Amino acid sequence: MELKDKIQKRQAKVGIIGLGYVGLPLAVEFALHGFNVTGFDVDTWKVGEINGSRSYIGDVKTADVARAVEQQKLRATTDMSKLHDMDAIDICVPTPLRKTRDPDLSYVVQAVEAVKARLRRGQLVILESTTYPGTTDEVVQPALEEGGLKAGTDFHLAFSPERVDPGNVKYSTKTIPKVVGGINRESTDLAADLYGAIIDTVVRVSSTQVAEMVKLLENTFRAVNIGLVNDIALMSHRMNIDVWEVIDAASTKPFGFMPFYPGPGLGGHCIPIDPFYLSWKARQSGFEARFIELAGHVNGSMPAYVVERISEALNTRKKAINGSRIHLLGVAYKKDVSDMRESPALDILELLERRGAQVSYTDPYVPRLQHGITDLRSADESSLNGIDCAVICTNHAAFDYAAMPQRYPLIVDTRNALKGVEAKNIFRL
Ligand SMILES: NC(=O)c1ccc[n+]([C@@H]2O[C@H](COP(=O)([O-])OP(=O)(O)OC[C@H]3O[C@@H](n4cnc5c(N)ncnc54)[C@H](O)[C@@H]3O)[C@@H](O)[C@H]2O)c1
Fold first, then answer.
1. CB 187 within 8 A of CB 179
2. Helix or strand run (H / E) with residue 14
3. CA of residue 96 to ligand 1 center, whole Å
4. pLDDT tens column, 149-184
5. Which is the closest atom of ligand 1 to the Cα of 93?
6. Are 41 and 78 in contact (CB under 8 A)?
């Protein structure tokens, strides 16, 4: 049976490589729509959890994993030889930066090597990992073709960026439109058919490079606008203007303005990283991506600015950071998630400890925090004594904000979580 028919009849076997924040929701979505899904991961613990019917990703319900596993529509394995049996393979592995801020494609290369060794005629391979324009046709395609099969004729190849937003209760895998670009028309069509079977809206673009660039534009747009608003926040503080009130009032304009909010710095696996994939690639064409570099500079300096504001707050009580007890409220990189990747709270923690502060934290999503030689447990707020200053780094909904102005002598609020509360001990970003 042709792949197109198999997709239509939901008989196509789908393999997902990398069962993380991106791969697991996708695997479950395919499985719950009747596809036979195999998840491939090098992490034996994750494989065990899935096969034991448990989810380890906040946005994926354990009940859904259990249902998919029970119906024998979903299974996980570390055995890459099973890739040969798949009709469609989605690659969802990490794409971090090296210390030098260059792209680290080693996970993608490793996954592609695993596919190459089992590639067979008629298979559809889709890269979902966020990466620079040109990765699919310059890196993935030649590697897969080393086995002798030709992309576009013997097998199909496409890029489709993932747009999942962890913690977002409004949009899910199914309702976020999916952009698809193949190396030729047939690859685009097959990838669009596959996603069209589980996702409400599929947007076809003319090439893999366009699809790759779409994702980087989206994330650069966020990084640059956050950088702009952080810069406006710094400027407003100097001018004694409440930036939060300014943003709220500007947001009443029904067109031509979109609110972004200042904060302690960027976090997560996307916004602090992806724009540098683009600037790296642009540099190879002799183009300097100035907005990306500038936004990176402003956003990267926010943790140090927060520490400066903590110092200012303590100064009003004739205290120094050195020797003070400073309590961080929320350490995950954003509201209501447990993800600590690139979290600015880690930089704040490090800067404070280096200046001699005694740091503790509370985060209902992060029971233990290990960073360098620091190893802390989330403290119960009601049992805290002698805190000199609390710092709201992440505005989790579970915090008791109303109690904070009485509980802590000083509060540095980096998220405007205490909006509307007027008290002399609150210092807003
Ligand atoms: N997290 C997000 O919100 C998000 C959103 C959109 C796009 N993305 C992009 O999606 C990609 C994946 O991100 P993520 O957040 O899901 O990462 P993740 O770290 O949560 O998951 C990646 C998984 O891949 C596995 N893995 C690594 N190498 C492997 C290999 N060779 N074979 C099999 N499995 C392997 C890891 O064990 C891990 O389980 C990245 O390119 C990221 O930029 C992430």
1. no
2. strand 13-17
3. 9
4. 999 999 999 999 999 888 888 998 999 999 999 999
5. 24
6. yes
